[in-house]
Amino acid sequence: MSSNKHIQFSGGIFNSAGLRLAITIIMISALSTAYSQPAETPLPPPAPPQEITASIFYRDVEPKLLFQMLSETYHVQFEGVEALNEPISLISEGKEEVNVDGMLQLLNAKLVTENKAAVREGSVIRIVPLEDTHPKTINLTYADPEKVVNTLKALYLAKGDEKGEDKGRKATYIGVHPQLKGVLVVGPKEALTNIETFVKTELDVATPPQPPQAPLQQKYIVLEYLAADEFKQLLEKDIDPGQKFNAAVAPNNTLIISSREPAVFARADELKKTFDIDRMEIRYVPLRNAN
């Protein structure tokens, strides 16, 4: 008795072996179609958000309105604004565009007069009493205030993305004092102590006096036989590196030497006597035994 089974379909009759073959062909066809499609191109990583900068020009603006405009510009939130009553002028110098930290520096320079300070924590900026922070004027004797401020900002000015512990060691404002030769710093007591120590020991120090220099002298050496450029190379190789000089070839086979070292000129004279000679000079030597 035959072992092949038959299955009835609407289109005809297939035995079991034919059915298995048809299914295998369908699966291979499906896999081939899937692998033939190009792989999806991965999306590029999202670009980092661009830093917001703006040119600030607000003159005598009510605090509530000012902070509303600053919030919309820099996408930050202000807290404690109700503690301010006097109109505020906030102007970036020379219409320069400033980021949020630059805006805070301008703002803190104004808030000092009301015993307030702006402290940033991420996207939130709090207006706090100066009891939480402290203003300090560091007077300068030798250093330029602008240069000192630039150095201190790089090292000690709190940035918006710093954590609380790090921010506690940084100043919230550093700027040139408007009336005195010095810098105005606002921040925690620990930060002010560190900043003042750094300024007095590293930045505001007297420049050590320079020893007097000998006058710069020149000497023209006219060469008879040796080429001036060859004599220049000879001099540069012979003179001690610690003895500074410049040498330049001039017309009429002349070498101009400039130096503050008398020893350079003395050595140049010695070299001229030794090497600036007629190498074609003919000398007659008497011979006793020659014919």
Compute the CA-based radius of gyration: 42 Å
The largest sheet is: 3 strands, mixed
Mean pLDDT: 79
The assigned structural class equals alpha+beta
Written account of the structure:
The chain has 291 residues and is an alpha+beta fold. It is built from eight helices and 15 strands. The chain has a three-stranded mixed beta sheet. Strands 10-12-11 form a three-stranded antiparallel beta sheet. A three-stranded antiparallel beta sheet has the order 13-15-14. A hairpin with a 2-residue loop joins β1 (6-9) and β2 (12-15). The radius of gyration is 42 Å and the shape is elongated.
Please give the structural blueprint.
Layout: E1 6-9, E2 12-15, H1 16-36, E3 54-55, E4 57-61, H2 63-74, E5 77-79, E6 88-91, E7 97-98, H3 100-111, E8 116-121, E9 124-129, E10 134-139, H4 145-156, H5 164-167, E11 173-176, E12 182-187, H6 189-203, E13 217-222, H7 228-238, E14 245-250, E15 254-259, H8 262-275
Parallel strand pairs: 5-9
Antiparallel strand pairs: 1-2, 3-7, 4-6, 8-9, 10-12, 11-12, 13-15, 14-15
Concise synopsis of the structure shown:
The protein is an alpha+beta fold and 291 residues long. The protein has helices at 16-36, 63-74, 100-111, 145-156, 164-167, 189-203, 228-238, 262-275; strands at residues 6-9, 12-15, 54-55, 57-61, 77-79, 88-91, 97-98, 116-121, 124-129, 134-139, 173-176, 182-187, 217-222, 245-250, 254-259.
Short descriptors:
single chain; 291 residues; alpha+beta; 3-stranded mixed beta sheet; 3-stranded antiparallel beta sheet; 35% helix; 24% strand
